[in-house]
Design brief:
about 170 residues; alpha/beta; Double Stranded RNA Binding Domain; six-stranded mixed beta sheet; about 35% helix
């Protein structure tokens, strides 16, 4: 009986340690303490695709607000400036049948992004990001928009991760 109680206590202790190690986690510790605010102006757009620059800019801003590691502010108050250009939106055949009929397309969005510290001019990171969403061969405009939205979500996540965890 005493062995059973000891066994239960040991197991509860191990379980408590497991839950403790899975607790709160933040990227805040990886960013210099003087960096607290970021500005995200409207992305440039070389595609002329309607609404894509607003969608990406708003998604990036929302991601930083939701993450709450950096406060999103105007450029005049910011420690970091995140700028970007949507370079292109293109399609590529993804699934082709034996009769060489395309069944699915990948819709690629290519973006160039730069994050720099305003006080020092130091570039934290700069890179081209290319992500895609898929649509059927006879894709409608709504399906194309949905594929682009998937790509923008992935690009947004890449931007957030590169900014907060690139130390």
């Amino acid at each position: 009986m005493a062995f059973k109680k000891l066994y239960i206590l040991v197991m509860l202790g191990i379980l408590a340690l497991q839950f403790n190690s899975c607790g709160y986690y933040s990227f805040r510790g990886s960013i210099p303490s003087e960096i607290k605010k970021i500005a995200v102006p409207l992305f440039d757009d070389n595609t002329s695709y309607p609404g894509v620059r607003d969608d990406l800019t708003n998604q990036v801003i929302d991601a930083f607000i939701l993450d709450n590691t950096l406060q999103v502010v105007d450029e005049s108050e910011a420690d970091l400036l995140l700028t970007g250009t949507i370079l292109s939106i293109s399609e590529r055949a993804a699934i082709v049948t034996t009769g060489e009929e395309v069944q699915q397309f990948e819709v690629y969005v290519n973006v160039k992004v730069k994050c720099e510290e305003l006080k020092t001019g130091k570039v934290w990171w700069e890179k081209a990001v290319r992500r895609f969403g898929t649509m059927d061969q006879a894709g409608t405009q709504d399906e194309r928009d949905a594929a682009i939205a998937v790509a923008l979500e992935e690009i947004t996540q890449d931007i957030l991760n590169n900014t907060l965890a690139n130390w």
